[in-house]
Design a protein that fits this description.
Helix content is 19%, strand content 37%. It is an alpha+beta fold and 199 residues long. The protein has one domain (21-190): Lipoprotein localisation LolA/LolB/LppX (outer membrane lipoprotein receptor (LolB), chain A, Clam), CATH 2.50.20.10.
Length: 199
């Protein structure tokens, strides 16, 4: 199943101009991530239990992201206001919330990203096509890691794998990241979403 999900990406790469891919430096990747502002994309998520979800992601750096899951899941995850909130459509209770700083996702959403910082990058691979960098919070490595995969020319984030504090892994495979300068800040407002659902 995982190979089937990666097939479209591999086809795009195969049809790209015949130029040898180059390993990206940490400076290249940091510069790219710091340049991301408001983007959106379709995504496919492979959960720790092997189940697969799809949906749409909205990112507004710094500090904000929204994952809207397609049926039958229909869950919603919002990062905003230094919190990460998980809304379960089957529950009448409020969302489950965590401090964003306790999740590896904060490494993508941080205001300033410097992968050259001491003890931040704990793994780096280049497979001839893409560069994967595994990073952690140097001050709190117990929060887990995020392995981010990029292609070059132009540099683009293709997927990430989060390994949480108990060792569970969640993979997010991104479609084409599109600029979305007109995203409403309401998309990332956890309290407003709580109020909307309580009506």
């Amino acid at each position: 199943m995982f190979r089937l999900l990666l097939a479209p990406l591999m086809l795009v790469l195969a049809l790209a101009p015949a130029r040898a891919a180059e390993e990206l430096s940490l400076d290249d990747i940091s510069r790219y991530l710091n340049g991301l502002r408001t983007v959106q994309a379709d995504f496919t998520q492979i959960n720790a239990d092997g189940s697969i979800s799809t949906g749409k992601i909205y990112i507004s750096r710094p500090g904000k992201a929204r994952f809207e899951y397609n049926p039958p899941n229909e869950a919603l995850v919002i990062a905003g206001g230094q919190q990460l909130a998980i809304f379960d459509p089957k529950s009448n209770d409020g969302p489950t919330q965590y401090p964003l700083k306790r999740t590896p996702l904060k490494l993508i959403l941080a205001r300033k990203i410097d992968l050259g910082r001491e003890d931040m990058v704990v793994g780096r691979e280049f497979d001839g096509i893409s560069t994967t960098v595994t990073a952690q919070d140097p001050e709190n490595p117990e929060y887990g890691t995020i392995a981010m995969t990029f292609t070059d020319n132009p540099v683009e984030l293709r997927q990430w794998v989060i390994t949480d504090d108990v060792g569970d892994q969640t993979t997010v495979i991104l479609g084409l990241l599109q600029q979305a300068p007109d995203l409403s800040l309401d998309l990332f407002n956890i309290n407003r979403e709580i109020a909307r659902r309580s009506r």
